[in-house]
Design goal:
The chain has 15 helices and five strands. By secondary structure, the protein is of the alpha/beta class. Pathway: Amino-sugar metabolism; N-acetylmuramate degradation.
Length: 350
């Protein structure tokens, strides 16, 4: 479950809006005829909007040729992300510290960037058993913007502020503004509003020297270069944003004890596939027989992490729950506090 703006109005995928770089829609002193020219000049300075004359005949290529071109373009994205790993890691450590105190992780963006944030947030409850309100996705224009362009929403910093106010933002929360251009008013406005209220702020953009990063406490600029289709930032820029958001949520959850080794021990078994995965995770972590796994899961109401502790520490369900509570949900720490491993138990994660 995610929270999204209930106002109407986003854009086509991360298309920069007609406004100043301050992140607010300001039309004072600018005529209706001048604004498009000003915006055009601004777009021409953005790497993500650059025209590539060598690709002007791409539509004349055979399909396989275009596919090879796109694949080659995509292969450069991981390297661009790699250049920003120190900044990404610093932001993640700060996010994890806030979330350990009970804060939330909130993504804010418009168009493609907003959809990617909502996607990442929506996958955290089944993957890491987070509360639905613990990782939140805000998209300019509300739920309808996930499937349909809502014109004008990305232009409003005030809309972003209202969406954050509706969540009762606190100083323990983190707001990650996501925008390929790095100048989308909704994303910049969200970060500026959150920072003014003492929240941790992160700006994720795909242009250097962006207003979004300037407004944020932590800046991550993954410059992937011009797109195959001029200005279509759902391509390389969108891929880069997805990779970084994967890192932010996944590594934060690892830091919070949501995993044991590389096993998703907080997975929520909400369907048959996840129930089967739960049993497999317990088996991989403990090496226990199927019958013992079933008994441990039954004793812990299906909680994977608790069942692993029951088997590895040879304790009952309530004791496992208490040990995990005392260890703030970290399974490794709970194991060190337990009386000792049960006979024949095997820690498959080392």
């Amino acid at each position: 479950m995610t929270h999204m703006s209930e106002f109407s109005a986003p854009e086509a995928p991360d298309t920069p809006a007609a406004s100043g770089t301050s992140g607010t829609s300001d039309t004072s002193g600018t005529s209706d005829t001048l604004r498009p020219r000003t915006l055009r000049a601004e777009l021409e300075t953005l790497t993500t909007e650059a025209f590539r004359p060598e690709l002007a005949d791409v539509d004349r290529l055979p399909t396989l040729g275009i596919a090879r071109l796109m694949n080659g373009e995509d292969a450069t994205v991981a390297a661009a992300v790699a250049e920003r790993l120190p900044a990404i890691a610093a932001a993640i450590d700060a996010v994890a510290e806030r979330m350990a105190r009970g804060g939330r992780l909130i993504y804010a963006g418009a168009g493609t960037a907003g959809r990617l944030g909502v996607l990442d947030a929506s996958e955290c409850p089944p993957t890491f058993n987070t509360d639905p309100g613990q990782v939140v996705g805000l998209i300019a224009g509300g739920p309808g913007a996930l499937v349909t362009s809502v014109e004008g929403a990305e232009d409003s910093a005030e809309l972003a502020a209202a969406d954050l106010d509706a969540l009762a933002l606190t100083a323990d929360d983190t707001v990650v503004g996501v925008s390929a251009s790095g100048r989308t008013p909704y994303a910049v406005g969200a970060v500026a509003h959150a920072r003014a209220r003492g929240a941790l702020t992160v700006g994720l953009a795909c242009n250097a020297g962006s207003p979004l990063v300037a407004a944020a406490g932590h800046g991550i600029e993954v410059v992937v270069g011009p797109e195959l289709l001029t200005g279509s930032t759902r391509l390389k820029a969108g891929t880069a944003q997805k990779l970084v958001l994967n890192m932010i949520s996944t590594i934060t959850m690892i830091r919070l004890g949501k995993t044991y080794g590389n096993l998703m021990v907080d997975v929520r078994a909400s369907n048959e596939k996840l129930r089967a995965r739960s049993r497999r995770i317990v088996a991989l972590a403990t090496g226990a027989a199927d019958a013992d796994i079933e008994r441990a899961l039954a004793a812990t109401d299906g909680e994977v992490k608790n069942a692993i502790l029951v088997l590895l520490a040879d304790v009952d369900g309530p004791t496992a729950a208490r040990l995990l509570t005392d260890s703030h949900g970290h399974l490794r720490a709970a194991l060190t506090k337990a009386p000792g491993p049960g006979p024949g138990a095997q820690d498959a994660t080392g």
